[in-house]
């Protein structure tokens, strides 16, 4: 929020961010937009907080697409699938960051029945352009690579504990492809599709069916469901302190 001109106490901002994880099991993690409700009493307009969420999701897709390329080190036969994903990702990223798009959306909204929705979308994209400035974009990309890379590394470590030896590059690539597939399926939290792809890829890399199921379940508990629990704890802390969504924003 600092980049958008808002200063909040770091601890409170962190709790707001974590609170969004309670609704991470929603299509495209759209439920994490609940952070906007927490931030509104602190003077952060909805279009700016939603822009931050939009940029976060865009960076997630770019990062996961990059990490998915690691699987090519071991399975070059997947190059066609990954190139298709990359073309779609880059095309979407190029389109939504065009400087003329916000003005065009707001122009479309004038005099139309649902014109206010186009206007809100245009304002959100205008705020997003601030967060997509090169230095902020590259910093966010680097943080995303670190965070998602560690989750992929966790998959490899879990596999080794189960008795399946998977290279770290393969583990990160498998995790990235599975999460991307789950996101593209638009199922809540990618449930079902992420697990299916992850299990299939684990079998491709030498795991038997039982081991693949065990690794997949443990990985999802350690990543997805741990985040949901963490979000619930953050909501509980905010509620105990009397700083829920409708509370006045104080240091």
TrEMBL record:
It is found in: Cell membrane. The chain crosses the membrane at residues 50-72, 78-97, 130-150, 162-184, 196-215, 221-240. Signal peptide: none annotated. It is a multi-pass membrane protein. Its main location: membrane. The keyword Magnesium does not apply. Keywords: Cell membrane, Membrane, Transmembrane, Transmembrane helix. Pfam families: LPG_synthase_TM. PANTHER family: UPF0104 MEMBRANE PROTEIN MJ1595. This is Flippase-like domain-containing protein. It comes from Candidatus Competibacter phosphatis.
């Amino acid at each position: 929020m600092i980049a958008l001109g808002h200063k909040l106490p770091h601890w409170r901002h962190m709790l707001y961010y974590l609170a969004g994880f309670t609704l991470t099991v929603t299509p495209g993690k759209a439920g994490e937009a609940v952070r906007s409700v927490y931030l509104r009493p602190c003077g952060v307009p909805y279009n700016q907080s939603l822009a931050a969420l939009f940029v976060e999701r865009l960076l997630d897709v770019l990062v996961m697409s990059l990490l998915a390329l690691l699987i090519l080190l071991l399975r070059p036969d997947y190059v066609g699938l990954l190139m298709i994903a990359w073309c779609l990702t880059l095309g979407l990223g190029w389109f939504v960051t065009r400087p003329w798009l916000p003005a065009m959306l707001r122009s479309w909204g004038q005099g139309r029945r649902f014109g206010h929705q186009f206007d809100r979308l245009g304002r959100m994209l205008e705020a997003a352009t601030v967060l997509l400035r090169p230095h902020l974009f590259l910093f966010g990309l680097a943080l995303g690579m670190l965070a998602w890379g560690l989750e992929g590394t966790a998959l490899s470590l879990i596999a080794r504990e189960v008795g399946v030896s998977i290279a770290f590059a393969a583990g990160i690539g498998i995790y990235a492809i599975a999460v991307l597939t789950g996101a593209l399926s638009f199922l809540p939290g990618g449930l079902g599709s992420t697990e299916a792809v992850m299990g299939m890829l684990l079998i491709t890399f030498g795991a038997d069916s039982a081991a693949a199921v065990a690794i997949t379940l443990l990985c999802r508990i350690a990543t997805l469901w741990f985040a949901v629990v963490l979000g619930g704890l953050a909501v509980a802390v905010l509620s105990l302190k009397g700083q829920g969504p409708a509370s006045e924003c104080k240091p």
